[in-house]
Known about the structure:
Blueprint: H1 5-16, E1 19-20, E2 23-24, H2 34-38, E3 42-43, H3 89-101, E4 104-107, H4 110-117, E5 130-135, H5 137-143, E6 146-147, E7 153-154, H6 163-166, E8 172-177, H7 203-218, E9 223-228, H8 232-242, H9 246-252, H10 255-263
Parallel strand pairs: 1-4, 4-5, 5-8, 8-9
Antiparallel strand pairs: 2-3, 6-7
Helix pairs in contact: 1-3, 7-10
Amino acid sequence: MKLPHELRIIIFEHAFGSRLYPVSTVAKSGAYDPVARSYATVHWGFGNYNAHDWRGYKHRLGDWLLGEEATTADYSVPRPNLALLRTRKQVYAEARQAGWENTRKCFLSPTHILSVLDAGLAPKFNWLNKLILDFSMNGWFDFFGVEWWPHFHVNSATSKGYLLPALATLTHLQIWFCSPDDGSRFSPWGQASTDNSPYECCQRVMVDWVMTLAWPFIMHLRKVIIGGAVKKDSKKKWDAILAMPTKTIATYIDYVVDERAILTTPPSQL
């Protein structure tokens, strides 16, 4: 404890790592029950492993809460080391605050983030300031309420995009995309078309669509980054747009027109 406070915080940050995958204690049977979720507690989570590190399995670790086992294009994050929380009171208090406030919170599906945000017992810190949303393409459509049956449209009643501007402390957001190696497996339109041939999502098109649908919910944020399985030209394009001043972007992106263009895409081109 002779070290200055600033140095202790740096040590705590290295101990916890830069990312957390927080989870709710809600039971599977109560996953979609708001009352059950409200009685749950948020805890530190179990980390996340990519295809290379997870014992040779192709897909990342996931279940009913953490989302589909879509191939991730990210590095592995081990389970957080909580040994520091079992020491003296001062270390416990400082380390706990640093662990929750100075890490990026990662979510693997809309169900995952909803279960955590609805938990009644959550950390009493500024812990939702930096988020990473790492969804499959199907997960992104679900998050923004996009439905394709009986016609291609946005269902505002099921959209969860409102969660982002509702988080008053959120300043940094990373929008992550899974690998296109899954092909049709996590296509928003399912695994087969009307003639039983598999759908394939064009990664460039889907990234543009997701970013366009996300725009009204992220335009107020101080910093937005896209990453994961994103083509170089797509990343360069959106990095340049996101780096523009807000007023300049408003003249560059006409969200209403761009969304209409997406939703009026002929079914034969989906």
